[in-house]
Amino acid sequence: xxxxxxxxxxxxxxxxxxxxxxxxxxxxxxxxxxxxxxxxxxxxxxxxxxxxxxxxxxxxxxxxxxxxxxxxxxxxxxxxxxxxxxxxxxxxxxxxxxxxxxxxxxxxxxxxxxxxxxxxxxxxxxxxxxxxxxxxxxxxxxxxxxxxxxxxxxxxxxxxxxxxxxxxxxxxxxxxxxxxxxxxxxxxxxxxxxxxxxxxxxxxxxxxxxxxxxxxxxxxxxxxxxxxxxxxxxxxxxxxxxxxxxxxxxxxxxxxxxxxxxxxxxxxxxxxxxxxxxxxxxxxxxxxxxxxxxxxxxxxxxxxxxxxxxxxxxxxxxxxxxxxxxxxxxxxxxxxxxxxxxxxxxxxxxxxxxxxxxxxxxxxxxxxxxxxxxxxxxxxxxxxxxxxxxxxxxxxxxxxxxxxxxxxxxxxxxxxxxxxxxxxxxxxxxxxxxxxxx
Length: 438
Hints:
Elements: E1 2-4, E2 13-22, E3 27-36, E4 39-43, E5 54-57, E6 62-65, E7 67-69, H1 85-94, E8 97-102, H2 113-126, E9 130-133, E10 135-136, H3 149-154, E11 159-163, H4 170-182, E12 186-189, E13 202-203, H5 206-211, E14 215-216, H6 218-235, E15 239-241, H7 247-258, E16 263-268, H8 295-307, E17 312-314, H9 339-351, H10 357-372, E18 387-397, E19 416-426, E20 429-434
Parallel strand pairs: 2-5, 2-6, 7-8, 8-9, 10-11, 11-12, 12-15, 13-14, 15-16, 16-17
Antiparallel strand pairs: 1-20, 2-3, 3-4, 6-18, 18-19, 19-20
Helix pairs in contact: 1-2, 6-7, 7-8
């Protein structure tokens, strides 16, 4: 049983007795955190004259910086049957997320100041999660004309992306990267050569052959990734490669990083737990893009996360209405409603001995915040209070009822998850609170 709070009302709050983890300060100890006037006013000892409006007991729980999600669809404007800014920012708050980046494939696309401003204004009115739009690299994501990047940056876009929409003329892409570099904008790549990646496809494997499904081979990602890395080297633009799916991609990015290129990467959490053989039975909940790869690819991604080549974990949240997953597998919409399972699945990497708690916080909060240049992802005194309280031991079952998002599509439905968000504080106001949290 959970409840949402009114996120605009800021109280003087003390979170008592939790294990506070903040890799930015190399801090890991049981302490009280004091919040006043929207900022962290003290850790361990109360500021002079502090009198709490609300005391919350966090004993046995982890107190960490709010999560920062680099890729989450909020479906507005244009796809209200799948979600809205209100519904999806509320779901993000319930997942411990205080900041999310919204890709530009809305309808209309985020290629004008007006659309970027509309999204931020509606997110501000809802108040549950800070939404940071990513602008379109080309007008309408059509791959032909450069977008007005300066205007998008002035309107609050933290970077630009073409997503998986093709740019057939490499000269156009080169000019886009040069232009983005001029304005010091991060380019978010989702590398894919669509000439060898049919829609509705799955990973090239024995499973695909047995099921008779069209395939998206590994090289659809790695060929495009090689081209993109060469262009990054040529232009010097800061690049982030999102939602990679192949072990070979990890190797390519590691090689680029070793050469000193300004390159980072993330992986969607479901890619660390699912693989191609699981789509036996044509269950469309496993239909994602990029497709689920082999067990060897999955292990390569996990190794990349452990080594820090992949420095960010993201939800790749894509809510859908029920009908979008009811057609035959190849014609269903791709994607998973990923918010509710985000922190439990990411923390499972700690449970499995792959990451320490500090490394986990770095990958879900500190590193993405630093990448996009937002002053969050830490618990420094005087900083905006963006905090998540997480119970690492609570077990619960993911059901359509427990998914807060408007989209209930997830291959993890019916699974027992370990760890649950108990409280989220955004800019000093409670944006989500579990009813039984104190």
